[in-house]
Write a structure and sequence with these properties.
The protein is α/β, with parallel strands linked by helices. The radius of gyration is 31 Å and the shape is globular. The relative contact order is 0.07.
Length: 750
């Protein structure tokens, strides 16, 4: 008879390596943390900050110093030889960017070659690979595997809890796990079908690597980081035809200032999820069109502030010391020492328009030159002016009193042509204008006229209204110093920008909330924790749309307990976007969910009740012929769907389920089980709830097999059953306890 086909996933840390306690100890010593020894058994599940995880697993981090588990190399070799190399994977929750470090560690310790996957959602990867068995040292990952129908050998000497899934087999060490797997491989029974494959959505092929189009120059280290997790396509953003062709199948686009991301460009990118601006300003991106399309826009605020600030100082000094002309004259063999008339900055009055990140850098450096600093910025406090040593004045007063004026403001309707002919007329004769902000802030035509007629002594610009700039009224003027928007392009700035953009682009493609989103609110919760919460909210939105298949007119969210407004907004957006994907044929993401809802006349409301619960809850309710209601409970670590249509549940909803609304009558559960058995649908577990005996009740059956439409139709003919739904939800985050209910139980399948 045919031997069973075993496809195996092995964890790395704690399975192929020694126990990862040294990682927590190293982080505690180096970073002053107080992590428990088991923190890196499941670092994401233990809420270890992403930055700490990346240091631990990155180049030179303590993970590279771990020792292999006893005989790990020989045991992996036996598995590869017995099961076949195509059936064995290392699946680790280390950050994907740590791949080079992990692979180098395996080579250095002479492990046999084995394919390796990086993902915290190991079940999703396992399903895509057709995994049947796993070896883990993490309780959370073992439970996730087991709930997905994947047998998991958990390396643990601790006794199993009473509610541990039957698919978990506890063994003391890797050697014992390998012995049992090899014994299974030697049996003569046919390989069992893997039900989870039949439930898997999408293509049966290997998961497609994300495609990231890079249309402007970025730091090489950032590019390598992107290439470790995704396919990177380089294209000249100025070549519109090439750009549109590259975006046809792209998941993300990374640009600097030269690529114009218009509505036409977005229309050519149906799969685009992220646009990342490698810099601060996003005026070259149609932000409204991106938001309408549900595309997340990122930038890197502040990463190049020092570079842009120092470039501003360089332009001022170049003009003050006559450097461009003196350099050209000397190179040509002329010694014109008497021709040039440089001046000192000491004692001059410099006006800074905009005291944000770059303007603050300029102010801090100019103070060393003993200048008088005037500043105009209506958006910062008087205390900030005092900290910077800048005298606050209104814009007109600033223009009338400065020898040099420098602009550091974003491109907005308010700042468009902020320095126009009328404003230039207010400047003192002989004043100098510096613009390292945005090209449209200064009217270059009016500036050129003032320079030509001698009202202004000089100007220095790094930015232009249209870039690349091949023509300008300023070209050829002897008293103008021009540079091609290189203010933020120092080596250090490009590295810093590249670090932020590459890390957050990849995180956003993984579904994580990132801190530098332009068209989503910032989050006061760390990314891993918020991701777990929004994944459950997404499942709740999916469930409520299954319960109410016709688009409702209202979508009401009630937030109970002490929950920050930004967290509530992210949860609402996740649930709403998931529901709208079933209620419409639109492309909906958390970015555009509220816009789409408004266009479809779906009224969205969010109400806060901070005193209602100690443990926060998010309740989603929709109207209709029969209103429906789903509640997510969150203990600030784990989250789960714990209530459906006012019926409390014992355990979070997850997996593949049959949900019925019925009246509590004897025999209903048995008749449903009989029907499912006749259609060869295996019941994996059950929960029931009721308000009182004989009244309305709910039943949730977790099943291992698809429920045919004929079976569902037959179930609906059972007396006292009012509705029945088939729904599939993602596996939950670690289990959390629910409230006690009057009737709630679970049982294994017969």
């Amino acid at each position: 008879m045919q031997k069973p086909i075993i496809r195996l996933a092995l964890d790395l840390d704690g399975v192929l390596t020694e126990h990862p306690a040294p990682l927590a100890q190293a982080a505690n010593r180096a970073l002053g943390m107080q992590l428990p020894d088991h923190a890196f058994v499941d670092s994401a599940g233990c809420n270890v900050p992403v930055a700490v995880r990346e240091w631990v697993y990155g180049p030179g981090g303590p993970a590279s110093l771990l020792e292999p588990a006893p005989r790990a190399q020989q045991l992996l070799q036996r598995l590869l030889e017995t099961l076949d190399p195509d059936n064995v994977w290392i699946v680790t929750a280390r950050p994907a960017r740590s791949r080079p470090v992990a692979e180098e560690w395996l080579r250095r310790h002479r492990f046999p070659a084995c394919r390796i996957e990086f993902a915290d959602d190991k079940v999703a990867v396992a399903r895509s690979l057709g995994i049947t068995h796993a070896i883990e040292d993490s309780q959370r990952h073992a439970v996730s595997y087991a709930r997905a129908g994947i047998a998991c050998f958990l390396l643990s000497d601790a006794p199993a809890p009473a509610d541990e899934p039957p698919f978990i087999v506890r063994v003391p060490d890797l050697e014992r796990a390998v012995e049992q797997i090899l014994a299974l491989a030697g049996t003569t029974t046919a390989a069992p079908a893997r039900p989870q494959e039949r439930w898997r959505e999408g293509s049966d092929s290997e998961p497609r690597r994300k495609r990231i189009v890079v249309s402007d120059l970025i730091d090489e280290k950032a590019r390598q980081r992107l290439a470790a997790e995704a396919e990177v396509i380089d294209v000249d953003g100025r070549d519109r035809t090439a750009l549109l062709a590259a975006l046809e199948d792209a998941d993300a686009l990374i640009v600097r200032s030269e690529t114009q991301v218009t509505r036409e460009v977005l229309a050519a990118a149906p799969k685009l999820r992220v646009i990342a601006r490698a810099g601060t300003g996003v005026d070259n991106i149609d932000l409204d069109a991106a938001t309408e399309a549900g595309i997340l826009v990122l930038n890197a605020p502040g990463a190049n502030a020092v570079s842009a600030g120092e470039h501003t100082i360089a332009l001022i000094l170049a003009i003050a010391r006559c450097l461009p002309e003196a350099n050209a004259s000397t190179h040509s063999g002329r010694w014109e020492r008497k021709r040039f008339k440089p001046f000192d900055l000491k004692g001059k009055t410099v006006g800074i328009v905009g005291l944000g990140r770059v303007g603050s850098v300029v102010a801090q450096r100019l103070r060393a030159f003993e200048v008088r600093l005037l500043g105009y910025d209506p958006y910062i406090t008087r205390e900030r002016f005092l900290q910077l040593g800048v005298e606050p004045v209104d814009y007109e007063t600033l223009l009338e009193n400065v020898d040099i004026v420098t602009f550091h403001v974003p491109a907005t309707a308010e700042t468009y042509h902020m320095l126009d002919a009328e404003a230039i007329a207010r400047l003192k004769p002989g004043a100098i204008v510096i613009n390292c902000a945005r090209g449209d802030v200064v009217d270059t035509v009016a500036l050129a006229e003032a320079l030509k007629r001698g009202h202004l002594a000089a100007a220095g610009l790094d930015v232009f209204p249209e870039e690349p700039a091949y023509t300008s009224p300023l070209f050829g003027l002897p008293n103008v110093v021009l540079t091609p928007h290189i203010g933020g392009s120092s080596k250090e700035a490009l590295e810093a920008v590249g670090e932020i953009i590459s890390a957050t682009t990849l995180a956003a493609l993984r579904g994580e909330v990132v801190p530098n989103a332009v068209n989503l609110p910032a989050a006061s919760l760390q990314a891993p924790e918020l991701l777990r919460l929004t994944q459950v909210a997404d499942a709740a939105g999916h469930l409520i749309a299954v319960l109410q298949p016709n688009r409702p007119s209202t979508f009401a969210v009630t937030v109970r307990g002490q929950v920050a407004a930004d967290i509530a907004e992210h949860v609402t957006a996740a649930a709403l976007s998931s529901a709208l994907r079933r209620w419409s044929d639109r492309r909906v993401t958390p970015v555009n969910a509220r816009l789409v809802a408004a266009e479809l006349n779906l009224l969205v409301s969010v109400r806060f009740d901070p005193s209602a619960a100690v443990i926060p809850e998010f309740s989603f309710e929709v109207d209709g012929e029969s209103p429906h209601h789903v509640t997510v409970r969150w203990d600030r670590k784990d989250a789960g769907i714990m209530e459906v249509d006012r019926f409390s549940l014992e355990r979070p909803l997850a997996g593949h389920m049959l949900i019925t609304h019925h009246y509590d009558r004897p025999g209903i559960v048995g008749r449903i089980g009989t029907i499912l058995g006749r259609y060869e649908v295996n019941i994996a577990g059950m929960q029931v709830g009721r308000h009182h005996r004989g009244g309305e009740a709910i039943m949730v059956l977790n099943v291992d097999d698809p429920i045919p439409e004929e079976a569902l139709a037959e179930i609906l003919t059972i007396p006292f059953i009012s509705t029945a739904y088939v729904v599939s939800l993602p596996e939950p985050v670690p289990q959390m306890a629910g409230r006690p209910v009057r009737t709630a139980f679970s049982r294994p399948a017969d």
